[in-house]
Prior knowledge:
Translation, Eukaryotic Peptide Chain Release Factor Subunit 1, Chain A; CATH 3.30.1330.30; 5-stranded mixed sheet
Amino acid sequence: xxxxxxxxxxxxxxELKEKKGRHTELVSVYxxxxxxxxxxxxxxxxxxxxxxxxxxxxxxxxxxxxxxRIIQHLRLFKKTPENGLAVFCGNVSEREGLQDLQLWSVEPxxxxxxxxxxxxxxxxxxxxxxxxxxxxxYGLIAIDNKEATIATLKGDRYNVIKKLSSGYRGKHRxxxxxxxxxxxxxxxxxxxxxxxxxxxxxxxxxxxxxxLKGIIIGGPAGTKDxxxxxxxxxxxxKKKIIAVQDITYTDESGIxxxxxKSQDVLSNVQMIRQKTLMQRFMKALVSDGNMAYGGDxxxxxxxxxxxxxLLSENLDDKIIDELYExxxxxxxxxxxxxDNFEEGFQLWNTFGGKAALLRFKV
Length: 362
């Protein structure tokens, strides 16, 4: 998948998801690969007639106008593009009574096979999202006796799904309790907590088992080992364990620690690849090696010195386009990094969103 195409589609999806209609007046149209575009135009023309029955004068006008804009846009095509077409149009004005009719159109880089016409308060983005969201998923579980965090890792993003707390009382026992009785209560409490974590893990991960590439579990030695070796995880999930790591924290920072400590087994994941490249860049920076950043990027591109160009997705689209095309023309690799992990954040905030590993020093 071309990084620039993926970045642009991700950005479009985020933009569309932010748009909200005051009523059911945002129109989404998906035309699948190989489908006759003229049949869609005829359908939308019929829908214009149906829309005249909408009671609200404002909503009626916005829907009919959106359909007309889409129809006129589709007439620009002699036939459906090779991979299909998705068109979105509607009144996205934030002010009541003021029309701001906008249209977005995308020819996806992979075929779409679904046909959709829908009028709603939001645009239908799921079919486009499925093209850019990595299908391979890794499960992450950080657990100790007090808390647990369950997350997924897809591509360049991790997502915390569930946080759990045990109410564990540690080494302080209530007055009057014998040491043996207190230890038994603590063990029961710990067992019940691990059972809960196992149940939530099953509910989260079994749903998409076919795409689950592996599970990584982390925590203090005793607790995580008991969880892995005990009868807490579903047997299908136990088969998916690819690493068990000693980590200090079990909240969201523990999830980040777990990802960092598992780079060897996650080497094919996009986030890990990008973290590794940024770490290489930082080492080259410290040792005055083959690297460039900021204003020196253009100079390095001019002489064909760039091996891998690292760009922040926060840069202006025009800048990304220009640098991307220049880099590709010299045979360089390009990575476009989000800022939702440490190295991506550092690229944007410390180096102005532009850094590079060089073939030779400029």
